[in-house]
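#onboarding

Welcome to the new folks! Below is a worked example of what a typical request in this channel looks like: someone posts a single protein sequence, and someone else replies with the predicted structure as tokens. Don't worry about understanding the tokens yet, we'll cover that in week two.

Example request:
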Amino acid sequence: MTVARLKKLSLVGPAGHKTGTLEALQDLGCMHVLPLVVPPSEPEEISERGAREAYKALRFLTEISDPRRQIQRDPDFDMDVFVKDVLDLMQRRRHMMDRRDFLAHRIVQVCPWSDLDFPPTDELAGNRLWFYQLPLKHRDTLASVKLPWAILERDHRFIYVVLISPDEPDDDILPVPRIQVGSLPIHELEAQLEEAEIALEALEAERVAQTRYLTLMRRNLSVAESAAELAHATQKVRDEKSVFAVQG
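Example response:
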């Protein structure tokens, strides 16, 4: 087997012909573009090869087991706009899932202290409430605590204690770290969790509706890949006032 000799080619032309020249080279398909400029310093400004974002959007939609009836023709279908819409939906869904999980976790944390309605700070003379989940075997350590305290709940393993102080107690005031319970009672957290679940259902319905464009997406993937490759190559071109230079 012989190795074909490669030739280095440099093209210089008017700036107004840059896009057309690069598109023609892409159609020719026999030139590997070499960088004539330093790549952007910010990673997000670097155009990647291949339609990575388009494939990400496609995977997101193909995970739906029962897609909608496919649209075969739509003269107004814009692949770039549609991919951006799908990726935006992915981000909104991820954000709402994070919020749903946070609220569910916070409810689990707060439940042992029952459904408390926290009084305003001015009604506590500037004091605040500090919560601790204390193992039963450490019950006697409360005797040495100088701050006001109360046991709110208990079970077969723990006692759930609240300390009252304007400032956060020292880390060693009890043999366990304090628990973050926030400032919202359980009924308010549960209401927000329900809102998050409803929002997630609406986002999932929007996702299912977008699956009707899967066929058009697959048809346009080659166009998206070509556009991504062109954008990647464009960042290797040198621009000097009214001319451009490309080498490969």
